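Final report, closing paragraph on structural work. Over the funding period we assembled a curated collection of sequence-structure pairs, and we close with a single example.
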Amino acid sequence: MLYGDKGSEAFLSEMVGAQSHVGMRAMAMESLYEYGSRAGFWRLHRIFTERGLPLTVFGVATAMEANPVAVEAMLAAGWEIASHGYRWIDYQYVDEAVEREHIARAVELH
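Its predicted structure, as stored:
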């Protein structure tokens, strides 16, 4: 909802059976994602960098745009960033020109 989606996120969470709330925010789901970017990422960053372990991050570009300091830390650690698209949407019916724009924007980020 915060990024122009029609409904709240329903996937990639520990909330079994979560459903999208059309036209409204799901604060519990948003809290999970916010915690990950604020605290969870930095814990994983510390664990991997302390051990010198290589890492590939599959990141959605809009999330990375919202967390530029984390992106800088990934790059400084020598991590590979593999784009997971510009937005977390189903691109099956997205116009090709829009998809190309999203690919270019995602690649520019890193």
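The mean pLDDT is 81. The radius of gyration is 15 Å. We thank the funder for supporting this effort.
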